[in-house]
Design brief:
This protein has 587 residues and is of the alpha/beta class. Helix content is 37%, strand content 21%. The protein folds into two domains: 259 residues, Rossmann fold; 166 residues, Alpha-Beta Complex (Isoleucyl-tRNA Synthetase, domain 2), CATH 3.90.740.
Length: 587
Amino acid sequence: MLEKTYHPSSIESTQYARWEASKAFTFQADSTAQPYTIMMPPPNVTGSLHMGHALNHTLQDILVRYMRMKGFNVLWQPGTDHAGIATQMVVERQMDTEGLTRHDLGRKKFIDRVWTWKAQSGGTIVSQLKRLGISADWSRERFTMDDGLSLAVNRVFADLYQQGLIYKDKRLVNWDPKLHTAVSDLEVNNVESQGHMWYIRYPIHGEKDHFITIATTRPETLLGDTAVAIHPEDKRYQHLVGKSVVVPLVGRLISIISDEHCDPEKGTGVVKITPAHDFNDFAVGKRHNLPSINIFDENACLNDEAPEDLRGLDRFVARKAIVSKLESLGLLDKVEAIVHTLPYGERSEVIIEPRLTDQWYVNAKVLAEPAIRAVQDGKMSFIPENWATTYFEWLNNIEPWCISRQLWWGHRIPAWYGPDGTIFAAMNEAEAQEQAQKHYGKTVSLNQDEDVLDTWFSSALWPFSTLGWPNQTPELKICYPTQVLVTGHDIIFFWVARMMMMGLHFTGQVPFEKVYITALVRDEKGQKMSKSKGNIVDPLEFMDKYGADALRFALAALAGPGRDINFSISQVEGYRNFATKIWNAFR
């Protein structure tokens, strides 16, 4: 006999336990039924359920449950991501309360501690997803640092290195001076901030009392200037092209060059070029073969390239000191208050510094070409179709992909260095030793690269590494390529495009036939949910109060391709009442 009152929490948990016990979600590798596969976007092992997850996984659950009812052999492949920086920070914060740093423990003991944390506390989000009622095949749950997935990562790295598509290079990266690592664009928040524009007078060499005034928001970087640029059509300054100016405080002579990067309408129209500390300037430096002078250390403090009295100063302390010196020398023309955008580290919450470092890169341009053609030829399509434009725009203008991170937690780069610096990329150290033996003609000592791979590198292999690749498993033959991927527009480039590139390169097939781009869940006023606005809605609270069915129904009813969702409590309350009506009718 059904209870008189509908209590969703107890009813849902009991029913979910029945489903799991009966293996209702299990994929059958020996089934002759037509396969249908969806890869779950792996949430961070440090994460917890938010409204975006709730919407995304509800839509996936609708698809897989529908296909099961139609008789398909469904695999909804679940798993979690090791989340390099996020996970390392969680453990380091714990250690900080004990007065310890990872350097106190050393690399091996620190990594052991992270694995212990992962076993005890990691994966909370998995239980939260079960609370949402999703019907993934949990018996096949994977983790991006499982042995099998790590094998795939090493295979891909070694193969791409041998093919010349992975290489080391000195380029600008987003450098986090607190975490001491390169970070991806996705881990940078651009924040509108109050700032200043300083107008600095650079003396023209050989012309007494003649100056050229340059506006900059970062006066401290003048210590690394290697050129001054003007636009080729800016008639005000054409007579100066080819002459030289003296870098204030340093005394270095640098050339005045012509380059279209300059905006005649911005500042004075004259731009200081600092290739080692600005992404646009780096590109200008490449075009004009300019030297790059790195003036900051890993803490964003001035290094030995700076005048002696400024060395060791934090970048913002140095800024005040430099501005003061310029003013005393009569080289500061004026200062304007402005509003501009500053890049903050998503996790460190400090301003990111463009920094010239040696890193590992993937030649993404070569890998992007088949990924572009696959969508043009209709082998993979977006829903809604307009997101293909975003995909093409990114891939047609793709830059080399920086894949190295200066962390300890993650896939350590499978590259070993010989005594003379020769690199041996291999599946493991034994294989690297074999390569070294052939190269040197004798046994030598090898040292493995200290860096780990960008989390997105292993995530890019998710559609086929989870199915057993590089081994040719029954699951890989049956379930690849998958039918659909459900994800958000913010990671079309970071994840979708990279899965396309890796899938096509290593399997010859697209990893999925369709990509469904979900809406963004906004608050009831249509504003983006954020901590700063205080309008974040916790789906767990809603499920505890109204039930998972009510929340899922509200999200599914509101979801529509190409439009965002304005979410409100009243909608969930209404669908809780609807669920109650169904309960009473069934009684």
